[in-house]
Write a structure and sequence with these properties.
This protein is an alpha/beta fold. The chain has a domain at 10-322. It contains 18 helices and 14 strands. The strands form three sheets. Strands 3-5-4-8-7-9 form a six-stranded mixed β-sheet. Strand 13 (374-376), helix 15 and strand 14 form a beta-alpha-beta unit.
Length: 474
């Protein structure tokens, strides 16, 4: 098998985290990175000048980018086989009442843990070693074409999106080209896994996200996306803003007024989160051919998946008459979906620590159970981009909630890279002191019932969750 994940990637991290949860163990995001466990080196990087420290942290914690030769050998089967191989450590006789198929994220991982279900992802990131300048979009496009042409030529069931993010990924652009390979059809490896692992009478759960982003058409199945999830819109990446120009000046960059290509662009499924309609059709067709029950939940954004995952755990605890003991807020690659199975914790996963994720938290904060602690794990990026929310504002947002940072120093956020090695041990220790046993998982039809209640616009779900549950004091 030739495919390996790209360091701290959220998509493949979600699959690995689900596999860990099904084994009842914690997920360590840095487990496969070069020096992710070297706490001393990560601490050193936090004390260097910011640009040096960020570069050292990227080098120390990323997987080695793939060599260009892989583009001539990589197949869809390699991607799918990597996904299903994550469950090889499970009992081969184990069957699942639900198998989740679709958009991979930290929120999806928590939802899978709540359902006791494995995840079959519809997209995979890959990074190729290729040096360039952080603002050279034309050069990035050409390097992407050179790398992707052989992949797409011998994989007609793949669509590729090159991602050029000169704000959040300036260090990575200097070293590699980042690409998302998206499945257009259900691979044979997934079909075999479903046949062997789905319990008789069990159902498939298809998660689709309709999030779109403006992308340049580079080829028939190749697009280039500028930017991504954060505090900027796609048009701000393309056309620029005065405050973004000011930041680029401070960073020593010469680019102004955005990044553009002399090409046609259209709104397409967003590289990391957007679902391909053909893939969903392929899944439904397979379910029909095999006579398998299938449920579908569609979302307009990744933030909606975070919300339904949060409410799903609340719903399960209500059904089991379990009193939640804490809310755990995670972000980025930091995700431990096993936590709800090991401790009475309601997890909320945020895609990042930017303004958009802050809005997600503000919107769901009124639904936090009162009088229980909030544990906050903010992933350090090292980038003081204009959309990063500083620790002071996070603390203000959570004031009065008995909140505390777990495994990180807020005074050094977002540049305390030692946090990467400390967050999972910290939540693992908290779980040891607040353990519980969960009697069963949430059923797929119970999740659909919850989703219908939420979509109805009524307050029934909120009332049901709160009714009759005495909140714990911390």
């Amino acid at each position: 098998m030739t495919y390996n994940p790209v360091g701290f990637d959220i998509a493949t991290g979600a699959v690995a985290a689900v596999a860990a949860a099904l084994e009842n163990r914690f997920h360590f995001p840095a487990a496969n990175a070069k020096l992710g466990r070297q706490l001393s080196l990560l601490r050193l990087s936090s004390h260097l000048p910011r640009s040096w420290g960020a570069g050292l942290a990227v080098w120390a914690t990323e997987n080695r980018p793939h060599n260009r030769s892989l583009s001539f050998n990589l197949t869809t089967a390699d991607l799918a086989q990597w996904n299903v191989s994550q469950y090889d450590r499970l009992d081969p006789e184990r069957r699942f009442d639900t198998i989740v198929i679709g958009v991979p994220s930290g929120a999806t991982a928590h939802l899978c843990a709540c359902l006791g279900a494995p995840l079959l992802a519809d997209g995979f990131p890959i990074a190729f070693s290729s040096r360039g300048k952080p603002d050279d979009i034309a050069g990035y496009q050409q390097r992407s074409v050179d790398l992707l042409t052989p992949i797409l030529n011998h994989n007609p069931d793949l669509l590729a999106v090159s991602v050029f993010d000169p704000i959040h990924s300036r260090q990575q652009i200097k070293r590699s080209v980042s690409i998302y390979l998206k499945l257009a059809a259900l691979p044979d490896q997934y079909k075999r896994f479903i046949r062997e692992r789905l319990m008789p009478g069990g159902s498939l759960l298809l998660l689709s996200c309709s999030s779109k982003w403006s992308q340049y058409e580079i080829g028939a199945r190749h697009r280039l996306q500028i930017g991504g999830y954060g505090g900027f819109t796609d048009q701000e990446f393309i056309r620029g803003t005065p405050w973004l120009d000011d930041w680029l000046h401070d960073e020593g960059g010469l680019q102004r007024s955005g990044w553009r290509l002399s090409r046609h662009w259209t709104y397409q499924p967003e590289a990391q989160w957007g679902s391909i309609s053909g893939f969903a059709t392929s899944v439904r067709d397979h379910a029909g051919d095999e006579g398998l029950p299938i449920q579908s939940i569609s979302f307009s954004s990744i933030d909606e998946i975070s919300r339904i995952s949060f409410y799903a755990w609340q719903w399960l605890y209500y059904l089991l008459r379990i009193q939640p003991g804490a809310v755990l807020i995670e972000s980025g690659p930091q995700m431990n979906p096993v936590i709800g199975l090991r401790s009475p914790v309601i997890p909320l996963w945020m895609p990042s620590t930017c303004t958009r994720s802050h809005q997600l938290l503000q919107g769901i904060l009124p639904d936090f159970p009162p009088s229980i602690p909030v544990l906050f794990q903010a992933w350090p990026t090292g980038n003081l981009t204009p959309d990063v929310i500083p620790a002071k504002i996070w603390n203000t947002t959570l004031s009065g909630r008995h909140g505390r940072w777990l495994g990180g120093d807020p005074l050094r956020f977002p540049s305390d890279f030692s946090t990467i090695a400390q967050m999972t041990p910290a939540i693992e220790e908290w779980s040891r002191r607040h353990g519980h046993n969960i009697q069963r998982f949430l059923q797929c039809d119970e999740l659909i019932e919850l989703q219908n209640l939420i979509e109805s616009g009524e307050d029934q779900s909120e009332e049901l969750i709160a009714e009759g549950i005495e909140q714990l004091e911390y």
